[in-house]
Amino acid sequence: MRQPLVMGNWKLNGTKASVEALVKALIEPAAKADGVEVAVCPPVIFLGLVEKLAEGSRIQYGAQNADVHTQGAFTGENSPVMLKEFGCKYALVGHSERRTLHAETDDVVAAKFEAIQKAELIPVLCIGETLSQFEANETNAVVDAQLKAVIDRCGIAAIANAVIAYEPVWAIGTGKTATPEIAQAVHAHIRAYLAGFDADVAAKVQILYGGSVTGATAADLFGQPDIDGGLVGGASLKPDDFAQIIAGAKR
């Protein structure tokens, strides 16, 4: 049985004071969430603070981005090896905001995925379609292509040591959420697509849903057979809301 995972993506938000308050507020909900893994992805500048605050708790953490290089003349980039040194377990890769705002192609995402795994971090591969693609019934083709780029570079076995996050771009930060039925249908398709390469990998990989998840929608979404938790944006910055989402993942 796949373990549920609820991960907060704080994006470019936070201060020293707010990060401290947020992590401290999440320690108890994470401790009470038997069978659910709780993780947060703060801005990289706060990783050292989160490392200190989360010590001894059940809270895991990761980075929002990682570079393909581990060191050298790459000003402003985040080495996956350095992220590992700060205790990160995860690194997001392929988030729609990176794909659109920073022009990261499927090939770039695949290269970053590979670098993250080589540093012994777990990549959280974000995939999903835009509103126009959704309305054109291109969802399955889009997510297939995004997955295929990684499989072509790293092999299907690499997916066994990764997390997939399906995030319909039209539902990120918009307040719109795919219905549990729509989300489940895409998650089932993703798992079936992966099964075409390796059924065992497909059965075991965690697939998260992301896109305006709230405490009110979490239980119905996470109750679907192929949805293994969530990658949560805005609500992860609100301790009470995030705690409710965590509780919604318990099985």
Give a description of the structure.
The protein has a domain at 68-234: Alpha-Beta Barrel (TIM Barrel). 44% of the residues lie in helices and 15% in strands. It has helices at residues 16-32, 47-54, 80-85, 96-101, 106-118, 131-135, 139-154, 180-195, 199-204, 215-222, 239-248; strands at residues 5-9, 37-41, 59-63, 90-93, 122-127, 163-166, 206-210, 229-232. It is globular, with a radius of gyration of 17 Å. GO terms for molecular function: triose-phosphate isomerase activity. Substrate binds at residues 9-11, 173, 212, 233-234.
Numbering strands along the chain, what is their spatial order in the largest sheet?
Answer: 1-2-3-4-5-6-7-8
Q: Structural class, judged by helices and strands?
A: alpha/beta
Oligomeric nature of the chains: single chain
Poorly predicted regions are: none
Rg from C-alpha positions?
A: 17 Å
Largest sheet: 8 strands, parallel, barrel
Overall mean pLDDT stands at: 96
**First and last CA, distance:** 11 Å
Organism: Pseudaeromonas sharmana
Subunit structure: Homodimer.
Pathway: Carbohydrate degradation; glycolysis; D-glyceraldehyde 3-phosphate from glycerone phosphate: step 1/1; Carbohydrate metabolism; erythritol degradation; Carbohydrate biosynthesis; gluconeogenesis
InterPro entries: Aldolase_TIM (IPR013785), TIM_sf (IPR035990), TrioseP_Isoase_bac/euk (IPR022896), Triosephosphate_isomerase (IPR000652), Triosephosphate_isomerase_AS (IPR020861)
